[in-house]
Specification:
α1 crosses α2 and α4 runs antiparallel to α6. With 170 residues, the chain is mostly helical. It is built from six helices and three strands. It has a domain of 110 residues. Helix content is 59%, strand content 11%. A three-stranded antiparallel β-sheet has the order 1-3-2, with helices on one face. Keywords: Cell membrane, Membrane, Transmembrane, Transmembrane helix. InterPro entries: Cation_antiport_E (IPR002758).
């Protein structure tokens, strides 16, 4: 379904001779609105939910990277900065190798943090933080990424879908 969305958006942008960033974004919005209007006709409620949550996650994560970059810049450029690096071990909410790999990559992309190791038998991930006042502070940040990521990944799962009538919920 994602391929259909991409083809429709790129085709619309090419047809409008607007293969510029703003034109492509406008095409994606136009295709999204069209798919949203045809949600029940095409039976794509789960797909659109995952698309919405994925887009929200991507925007939020870019904001987190920017915020973390500013924090690292303050530490590096600040005269009175005294970072307190730490390695924190935390048990993941979903002890799955693929999820741990994805979460570890996202953590490593975030300035000031790095996933060091994951132990599948215990579900523990070891995370290095450049400036960690407390382990709880580091864990809270990782839990937020984990929560949002799981919400996105589980949006299309059958356990998340449906109400008492068996229909998908928005």
């Amino acid at each position: 379904m994602l391929g259909l969305h991409l083809l429709l958006a790129i085709g619309l942008a090419a047809y409008a001779d607007a293969l510029r960033p703003l034109g492509v974004c406008a095409a994606f919005v136009a295709v999204y609105v069209a798919l949203r209007l045809a949600i029940d006709l095409l039976g794509i409620r789960r797909y659109l939910r995952r698309l919405e949550l994925g887009s929200a996650f991507a925007l939020w994560f870019v904001g987190e990277i920017f915020r973390a970059s500013v924090g690292v810049a303050r530490i590096v450029l600040g005269r009175a900065a005294a970072p307190q690096p730490a390695v924190v071990a935390m048990r993941l909410a979903r002890p799955d190798d693929r999820f741990a790999t994805l979460l570890g990559c996202l953590l490593t992309l975030t300035p000031g943090t790095m996933a060091l190791d994951y132990r599948p038998e215990s579900g523990l991930m070891y995370i290095h933080a450049l400036d960690a006042r407390t382990a709880a502070e580091v864990e809270a940040g990782v839990r937020e990424i984990e929560r949002r990521l799981l919400r996105w990944l589980d949006a299309g799962a059958p356990a998340d879908a449906g109400d008492a009538t068996g229909r998908d919920t928005p």
